[in-house]
């Protein structure tokens, strides 16, 4: 018998605090799960008897507020985020029973997470302006134009392939912070410059950056990674193709995609296959990195044979009067990759850099209606081993290198700092309320209420179609928490229980969750703020959000139907 996944949501509070409550729920629904004891009714959430759709509509108000203000009213992220924060606090207190101490703790966690991200933002800005003032950005753009005259293919190589590679080595918003200004320097509009890497890197988040998000899913669900890699790598590979197509679509629509279908299939196919092989041979920690390297090599080969359509030849621009060899221009990014490699793959160095950490311990809190949040520590900031620190080391070395090479005028350090502050300050102000409202929603149970409403559409006899909505729940988690990792932690066990009660493949549902969470990273407001700060769009993030939101919804929906297709194939074959 298929049990509607919506029923699981009503008991998620007790499942999180007492695993036996899941077994009691299954027993009540007539599922034979073996001999277990029944918990008392007080273990379960008091919201069980309230209409889930009412909670869904109330929980959706903060999201609707920030989307409306940014997209329709053209408010900046800082202003819209502050307004949505007040809406979130009011709903959390009145409708979801969040006490004052929970709100304070949730916002404190938001500040810590904002500090973690802003460390990257400010360091990336310093590195970018150090390279830009030396003329390196113009030189890199010129080199890519020499690699291929095909403007959309240039966008694909940087916004999709190079973004995949950077996600493999760094993550945490670094691909957007590095690539957006490069695309801007090549003549792409600020919106495309930010949206392309936002979309292009998202498919590789799960197995990128040492597969930390995938490891989190394994840890929270208790399912071995070897059981999850098959479906996860397939869905991610297919989604990688759609992400590449979406990047091309940004610069000319469907016609551009149709004209580049051959290089797109070759590049996306190679990256997807390499990631699949790495993941299924147990080396998933290097899946994103090796896929990115394979994509770069394939791109170089493809551009040697690909001839652009006359309508898509990139315009040539005059060279900067400071002619710079390509290898010199690439020095900051080569140094960055070396530093990341040393800090990541040499254990003594990693241990040394991670020795000094900034973190705080937060107590357990609960709402008046019974939603519990366990005691936990804030995400630690390794002062000397954080991705932001690695960017700062790179910036310092690059600055000294360009200074020795005579690429700077007098007063350059002051000018770099002034440009950094001008771009970074608005982003910093806007990030605190945006991240804060996301964590408040999670702690008050509002994020789960949103997922509950989505799953309600697939209850009863429609439960077999649940894989369609599973990626959307993963994407929702990434959007609200700003992290694929956090989405897997928040929704991983729920997805497992839903699959088991519905009688469908647990591995497939968890793969759909993980893929949706990976794609949902393109929607993270914190990453949008990071990208916009590097291209002069601070306070004008609405157009970027509009583009990535439409794209993210479409790609997540496609992923859901891919997951359903895999389920049907497995059922027919089985």
From TrEMBL:
Molecular-function GO term, any one: lactate transmembrane transporter activity
GO cellular component: plasma membrane
Subcellular location: Cell inner membrane; Cell membrane
Pfam families xref list: Lactate_perm
Topology of this chain in the membrane: Multi-pass membrane protein
Keyword Membrane: yes
Source organism, top-level taxon: Bacteria
Protein name: L-lactate permease
Organism: Thalassospira xiamenensis
